[in-house]
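Run log // design_07
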């Protein structure tokens, strides 16, 4: 249950975050102090804000560089805006170490719902990788441990469950990011007990809604959505395209908000995890989690536009 105290905290945090962004000179017209929408994790009832963040590409930075320093502002906007969930992986060219350093230096580890992955072929390799992940993330536990791209999941899912029993992770799950992974993911959802899945779902790649998303909902599995912007490619395709006439009534003022609202408008979706290295874009992305969801007709119209 989302308590009144937590709601007020989130609302105040949102106001502060947007004020910070406005002070920084980023145009954010007409925001109110509305809080980010929340969804419950079916396994426990714990709530998560519907907008989270990814780190692939966007958090690959050299400590001390301009990009690294800019990521501090990204996280400041993110946490002050009331968001909590950040997804990373030992496979993201050092992004997990950058995230670990920024969380420690910013004092944000406690409020972060930290998700990382196991991406290894053997049990031994997974053990070594998990030990390294704890050093790189500067923490001895995570909130979510996922088997990356279903890689050797028959070996790694039991290992993740062992780590859950040891209190090293609160939840376990599996991920994929391509339509070619949907059938296997469906089979795993039918046969294994999972807390989370992570999958792609976007206006130009909506096939997860055919089976995987309804099945996750039926089985009581939380869902993270990656690639809601098709790894940024969707922005190129709308460069000269105005938002639909109905955008304002949907509370949407940018294409980023539209793509994120599309993802969270599916009732199975818990949190969408867009990645950005820019604080102004982080503020824009958070706005996608505020206000009304898209109607079925609006969602269908977007899929038609990008088919
Ligand atoms: N198999 C897996 O487990 C798997 C696979 C894929 C992704 N993921 C996870 O999901 C996350 C998201 O996926 P993704 O990073 O592939 O792609 P994405 O979130 O669809 O797109 C990221 C791209 O969008 C740009 N962007 C972000 N916000 C924007 C905004 N408001 N306006 C304009 N451009 C914006 C970013 O550029 P800037 O940085 O320049 O803003 C970046 O190039 C990943 O970071 C990762 O954590 C997991």
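design_07 sequence
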């Amino acid at each position: 249950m989302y308590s009144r105290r937590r709601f007020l905290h989130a609302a105040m945090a949102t106001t502060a975050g947007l004020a910070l962004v406005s002070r920084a000179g980023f145009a954010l017209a007409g925001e109110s102090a509305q809080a980010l929408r929340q969804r419950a994790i079916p396994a426990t009832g714990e709530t998560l804000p519907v907008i989270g963040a990814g780190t692939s590409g966007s958090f690959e930075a050299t400590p001390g560089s301009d990009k690294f320093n800019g990521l501090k502002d990204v996280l400041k906007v993110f946490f002050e805006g009331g968001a909590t969930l950040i997804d990373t992986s030992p496979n993201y060219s050092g992004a997990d170490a950058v995230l670990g350093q920024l969380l420690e230096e910013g004092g944000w580890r406690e409020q972060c719902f930290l998700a990382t992955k196991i991406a290894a072929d053997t049990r031994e390799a997974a053990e070594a990788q998990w030990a390294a992940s704890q050093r790189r993330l500067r923490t001895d536990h995570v909130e979510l441990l996922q088997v990356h791209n279903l890689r050797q999941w028959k070996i790694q899912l039991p290992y993740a469950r062992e780590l859950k029993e040891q209190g090293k992770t609160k939840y376990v799950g599996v991920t994929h990011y391509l339509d070619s992974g949907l059938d296997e993911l469906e089979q795993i959802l039918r046969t294994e007990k999972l807390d989370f899945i992570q999958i792609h779902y976007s206006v130009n790649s909506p096939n997860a809604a055919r089976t995987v998303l309804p099945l996750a909902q039926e089985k009581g599995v939380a869902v993270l959505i990656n690639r809601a912007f098709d790894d940024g490619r969707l922005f190129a395709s709308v460069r000269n395209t105005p938002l639909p006439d109905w955008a304002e009534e949907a509370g949407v003022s940018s294409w980023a908000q539209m793509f994120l609202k599309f993802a969270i408008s599916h009732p199975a979706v818990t949190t969408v995890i867009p990645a950005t290295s820019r604080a102004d874009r982080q503020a824009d992305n958070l706005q996608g989690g505020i206000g009304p969801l898209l109607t079925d007709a609006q969602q269908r119209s977007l899929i038609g536009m990008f088919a």
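The pocket of NAP is lined by residues 54-58, 87, 148-149, 175-177, 198, 226-232, 235, 256, 273-278, 281, 284-285 (CB under 6 Å).
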